[in-house]
Amino acid sequence: MNPEVPLVVPEVNPEDISSHNGIISNPNCSTIQAVLPLKAIDMKYKIKRIVYSTYQAVSGGGRFGIEDLESKADGVELKKFPCSIYNNCIPHIDVFMEHGYTKEEYKMIQETRKILHHPNLPITATAVRVPIINCHGESINVELEKDFDIYDVRLLLENFQGIIVVDNPEKNFYPLASKVNGNDEVFVGRIRRDFSVPNGLNLWVVADNLRKGAATNTIQILEKLIT
Questions:
Q1: Which CATH superfamily is domain 14-55+104-226 in?
Q2: Total-model pTM
Q3: Cα–chain-centroid distance for residue 173?
Q4: Residue 73 pLDDT > 70, yes or no?
């Protein structure tokens, strides 16, 4: 990650576009969808710590990742993953680094700090590949600097550009990959307090990793540049 090249999510840090020096980079797909709700919350309540647990679709591994899932069996030659993804969850995305994190997890940590302009924010992450074709899901646990009203948090998310709140547990309404697929927005649900720590908050966040996590975000950057 080059410190001179901005990572831009237009709803979150559009001001960084002006410092591009000829190059603008799209962040990692898993980071893009996470920082929208985090930005909405951080502006009012200030984030103290983040714990990421991601459940990432095989399309994030490209065509070969999809083919590995569609092969449906052990004993065939895998093209992308180190073991069969069919009927499996693999806690391993990208290469392992010396400190035990994968490169995917490390990217989420570093990119979130950069995009939110919190260079020293404590963050940890576990990234898991799951056997679905498209759309990443993320459980995001956030500890805030000050107390919050859960209904106010919901309003902040509902009113933030690019976010759709789907959160009615009594009717089993929450973001699902099967429903989010093909959409450009980031969907947020399971909004609730984490009672294990002071000022803790849990979110479930789902987005189409090929659209908002890649192509759509790129187009939105271009739209900001030309308007």
A1: Dihydrodipicolinate Reductase; domain 2 (3.30.360.10)
A2: 0.96
A3: 20
A4: no
